[in-house]
Design a protein that fits this description.
CATH architecture of the largest domain: Up-down Bundle
Helix content: 40-55%
Number of domains: 3
Distance between the termini: 55 Å
Mean pLDDT: 80
Radius of gyration: 29 Å
CATH class of the largest domain: Mainly Alpha
Length: about 600
């Protein structure tokens, strides 16, 4: 040990005894999320942690109490704060408070949990070294059941405690976390704050099913560990010249001295700012403290940057990210998974849209009248057949340039049919529908359809950027969109899977349902953009699409598209850490 900073926290012994994977993620990778169970534990400890009571012995009848005793030992390699030290009749022993309830103690089992016993044993060993006296017992007080349990400090428990210390030293040398707990101990995952990051069932399923058949994918039946939908709303701010400030528990938007909007901060999960909108330092500080990202975009909807809370301490993930993405073979494997998912989802959307076309649709993709079969069955469309053929070639590709060309071919096929996915509205006086689509164009987009596509991709990019930052990735280091200086390459990689099923779907829905009209666009020179009112309707449609619940193709649980972005980012992290052998892109059916 080199100093106090190298000493093992007492709480870590509890964690490593409970679950080695939990210890690794929390202490080696420095991932420490807070959930309701952790918050409740902090609340229950409020008296024990009261700074006015620390190190102040108090007489309570025949017992002397000393709270929050800080103690360490370089020989044991331990350091920590003891909730309470009691002295009675010349005997000294530690008392550890636990938020939950202890076991019943039936069938000859001890009335305490093994991991709690190891922690209080370590506390006693520290006290022994400090006081130079033998300690025979420790006390566990379970707040949930209000029970006080005596823990005998026998040789077996002391050996188990020393083994926990040794296990921690071994885990610190690993490059990847241990496997999740086996099935007989899986109940320990319930309520664990690390479960959304650990993803135990997903990880074990991927390890045992490296090549999945459709039947296996359907039958996975995994319990989801993330909420089904996002809690809170996205606050879009686009009023030029407006100012956003904090007042009590609300964000208040003002313009020209008049209040135009007031939103409870607790109801916000993300703030998106377009153009000339000022935000006060107090509001930004509050949002950062609450882990609410603030995304900045130009007035025309181009993603600029995101103000995130301090980067996660998970340096191991980023180190592995840089090393793995620099490996041409593994980067190509990831790129193929993403391209496969992208082409599959484009083909699915194309088939769904063209399947609903009338059999007497006068034009098919080749400019000829389709057969009745082609007008109904999207899979018989020439573009769909060619895209299916491209999918069969992906596994054989060994050159990133060929993969990029294949992805480009699929995109050309997809967008060659995009105009047919748009239901023709009533023509304007000029004979144009207002939503005529010839080909994809951008920087800047020159027609309403391309303006909508570019805008939706910008919103999707900022969501992928935020999801990757939350997981701990560097969003600028990618494996497919490489060599793009200043571009969030990894966010661009991840969003490929969701372009068709989120962004393109929103565009088609708004056009085909009349949610937007040609007058909702501004055209200046060769540039076309949404009006302010048009953007408001787009925001609503985009958030509705993200809230749509869909079934994960591999794990079988239902979740909103917005949450799926985070699931895929976490599964990518699992692959980068070495938890799972392959990464599978997200696809819909």
């Amino acid at each position: 040990m080199n100093g106090l900073s190298d000493l093992i926290p007492l709480r870590a012994l509890n964690q490593v005894t409970y679950c080695q994977r939990l210890y690794y993620l929390e202490y080696v990778e420095s991932v420490m999320p807070i959930n309701e169970h952790v918050e409740d534990g902090l609340f229950q400890h409020r008296r024990v942690d009261d700074p006015t009571l620390q190190h102040r012995p108090r007489k309570d009848g025949a017992v002397l109490h000393t709270r929050s005793v800080q103690i360490s030992s370089t020989s044991l390699g331990l350091s920590g704060k003891l909730d309470l030290v009691e002295e009675k009749d010349g005997e000294v022993y530690p008392v550890e408070y636990k938020r939950g309830s202890g076991p019943s103690g039936d069938n000859g089992q001890p009335p305490f949990w093994d991991n709690d016993a190891v922690q209080v044993c370590a506390q006693a060993m520290l006290l022994e070294e400090e006081l130079g006296t033998k300690i025979q017992k420790g006390i566990l007080y379970y707040i949930g059941s209000k029970t006080r349990v005596e823990v005998p400090l026998d040789d077996d428990l002391r050996q188990k405690t020393l083994q926990a210390i040794q296990t921690i030293h071994e885990l610190e040398l690993r490059d990847s976390p241990p496997e999740p707990l086996p099935a007989e101990l899986r109940h320990r995952c319930f309520g664990c704050s690390l479960a959304p990051i650990c993803q135990p069932e997903e990880t074990l399923y991927c390890l045992s099913h490296q090549r999945l058949t459709p039947a296996e994918e359907t039958a996975a039946g995994i319990t989801r560990v993330l909420p089904q939908i996002d809690e809170g709303a996205v606050l879009y701010l686009q009023e030029p010249g407006s100012h956003v400030g904090k007042r009590s528990e609300h964000l208040v938007v003002r313009k020209d001295g008049q209040e135009i909007q007031r939103v409870p901060i607790a109801a916000i999960r993300q703030v998106v700012i377009f153009g000339n909108v000022q935000v006060s330092t107090q509001a930004l500080e509050c949002l950062a403290t609450l882990d609410v990202p603030v995304v900045y975009m130009t007035g025309y909807g181009r993603f600029i940057a995101a103000l995130q809370p301090a980067p996660t301490k998970n340096i191991h993930l980023r180190t592995n990210q840089f090393r793995l993405f620099a490996d041409p073979e593994r980067a190509l494997s990831l790129a193929k998974a993403v391209v496969k998912a992208k082409i599959t989802n484009q083909r699915t959307l194309l088939m769904r849209c063209l399947r609903s076309r009338s059999p007497d649709d006068p034009v098919n993709g080749n400019g000829h009248a389709p057969s009745p079969d082609n007008g109904i069955r999207g899979s018989d469309e020439p573009a769909a057949r060619e895209m299916a053929e491209l999918l069969t070639r992906l596994d054989r590709i060994s050159d990133p340039a060929v993969l990029l060309g294949t992805e480009g071919q699929a995109a050309a096929l997809y967008f060659s049919q995009f105009s047919r996915m748009i239901k023709l509205p009533v023509p304007t006086k000029s004979g144009q529908t207002g939503f005529d689509f010839k080909s994809r164009n951008r920087r800047p987009p020159r027609d309403p359809v391309n303006a909508l596509l570019s805008f939706s991709y910008a919103l999707l990019l900022k969501d992928c950027f935020s999801a990757l930052c939350a997981v701990g990735f560097d969003p600028y280091c990618g494996f497919f969109h490489v060599g793009r200086h200043g571009k969030p390459s990894l966010a661009l990689d991840v969003m490929e899977e969701f372009r068709a099923i989120i962004a393109d779907s929103v565009v088609l829905t708004l056009i085909n349902t009349g949610g937007l009209a040609p007058q909702d666009f501004l055209v200046w020179r060769d540039s076309c953009h949404l009006t302010e009112d048009g953007r408001k309707r787009f925001f609503q449609a985009y958030e509705q699409r993200k809230a749509t619940v869909v079934t994960h193709p591999v794990f079988g649980y239902k979740m909103s598209y917005g949450r799926m972005l985070e699931v895929q980012a976490r599964m990518l992290a699992a692959y980068v850490r070495g938890d799972i052998p392959n990464y599978t892109g997200f696809t819909v059916r």
